[in-house]
Amino acid sequence: MIQVVEVGLRDGLQNEKLMIPTHVKQRLVQRLINAGIKEIEVTSFVHPTWVPQLADADLLASQLHIDPGVTYRALVPNRKGLERALRTPIHEYAVFISASETHNQKNINKSIEETFPVLQEVVAEAKQHQKRVRGYVSTVFGCPYEGKVDLKQVVMICERLMDMGVYEISLGDTIGVATPNQVKEALTELLRQFSSEQLAVHFHDTRGTGLVNAYVSLECGITTLDSSLGGLGGCPYAPGATGNLATEDLIYMLDGMGIKTGINLEELCQTSHWLEEQLGKKLSSKVLRSYFQ
Amino acid sequence: MIQVVEVGLRDGLQNEKLMIPTHVKQRLVQRLINAGIKEIEVTSFVHPTWVPQLADADLLASQLHIDPGVTYRALVPNRKGLERALRTPIHEYAVFISASETHNQKNINKSIEETFPVLQEVVAEAKQHQKRVRGYVSTVFGCPYEGKVDLKQVVMICERLMDMGVYEISLGDTIGVATPNQVKEALTELLRQFSSEQLAVHFHDTRGTGLVNAYVSLECGITTLDSSLGGLGGCPYAPGATGNLATEDLIYMLDGMGIKTGINLEELCQTSHWLEEQLGKKLSSKVLRSYFQ
C-alpha cells in the first residue's frame, strides 16, 4: 500500500505571496479529503513572524471537521509550537532539521547540534501526549549554500532523530537537485539502517526530476511519498527552490502503474483548478494542465 | 554511449504560432551544435500548406554550414518531399506513421495500410542514394481518438518498417500519456523482435512523465532518446499534446547519472533562453527555469 502525504497546505502555501483566508484553507482540506487524500499536513505552528501565510494555524486546526479516516498533521518547530498544537485536534506532528549546516542555520537560526535538543524536547513531550512525530530532514540531496551533502551526515541525523523517537523520517530534496542514481544510492545506504516503513521521500520538481525520483524510491521499496497539490511549494530559505512534486503528477503515474491509492485524480484536478482561481495564478502540475489548458 | 536526438527545430517549431525566420533557425542549429548536439533534426519536407512554420525547409537545409561531426536529419513524408530533400545536404531522413488508425488518418490523410507503400517508396529511393532512413511511429502509448493502442499493432507496424529498410524506429508517445510500467512492457515486447540499437524513444511531457519514461527506457537498454530544446513541441493533430521532453531536463538527469553525452547543459540553457527571446515566450523546461527564473 502506497501512502501519499499531501503537504500543499503547509509546504505549498507557506511559499505563496498571497495570504489565503482560513475558510478557503478549510474548504481546501475538505476538498482534498473528498478526493481521497488520507494523510494531510494542514499547517505549521512556527512563529507567525517567520511564516505569516500560516499565522492562522491555531484557528485552522481548531476548526477542522475531523474525518475519522484521515490523519491531520502539522509542523511543530519547538516547545512553544507544540503547546499551540496540543490545543488543537491535530493527530500527528513533524519536526524538521537540515542535513547541511548552512541551510539549517538560515532556516532555523541554530546549528544542527543546537537543534537536536529542541527537537528532542518536542518529540518527548509529544509522545507523552500519545502523539506520533515525523522527522523531516531537508537538503538531503544538495544544499543551496554548500552543494553536495555527505551521506554520512544524513545517516547520522536520521539516527539521532530515530533515537529521539520519531516514527518516520521524510527525506527532503529541498532544492530539487536529486537525480535517480543519487536517490538510489542514498536510499540503499539508509535502508541498511532503517526499514522502508521508517522512511518517506519528499521531492521538489525544480529541475523536473521529482517524478523519476519518486519512481526510483518506489523501486527501492519506499511506500510513503510526499507531494503537493498542483506542485505548490518551494522554500523561503532555499533560493531557486520552486515547486514540490505535484500530487496530480504522482497520482497519474501511480494510477498508470496500477498502484491503488484511493485518490481520485479527476477530483484532485478539479480541486487544484479551484485553488488556482483562489490564488489567481496557474499551478505547475502538468497533469492539471492536461485537464485544464 | 547514449545518443540524444534534438528534434526541437522540427517537432517543436512546427507547433509554434510564430514563424521563425530562416536565419534565426540557422543560428539555432549552430548554437545547438556549439553546445555539443551531434544529432539534429532540422526540418521537415512536408507540404508548406500543412506546416507553414517549416515552409523554408529547402532554404534552411541548403544553407546549413555542415559540421563533419554532426548528423543533420529531416522528416520526409513522401516521394515529393524526398525529391526536395535530395537536393540538400541533409544526411538522414525520417518517415512517419501512426500506430492508431484515426491518428494516422488525421495526420497523413490515409489509412495505415495506404501509408505503407508511400513510405516504402521513400525508403527504397533514399537507400538508392545511400541515405539512412529512420521510422517514426506515433501514438505508440495512446491515441487522442482511440485511447489505448494494441501493442500487437505497434509490433506489426515496426516489423513492416524494418522490412522496408529503416535502420531505426523512434517510438512516439505523441500525446504524453505513457507511464513507466507501460513503457517497460512495450519495450520488453519490442526488444524480443528488435535490438536495442534499432529502437529509439520519443516522449512528450504532457503529463510530466517524459523524464521517468526516459529513465525506464535507459533501464531497458535503449540508447537513443529524442528530446526538444526547452520542451518545445506538441502535435497539431493531437489535441492536448503539449511539449516534448525537454533536452535540458534529459541532459540534467543524464549528467547526474554520470552518463556522458558531450552536451554542455549551461550552453544549452543559454541557447534556449535566447530562443525564448526570439519566440517571445517562456519555454517549459524546468532546468531552463532553474537557470533563468
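qc> The mean pLDDT of chain A is 95.
qc> done
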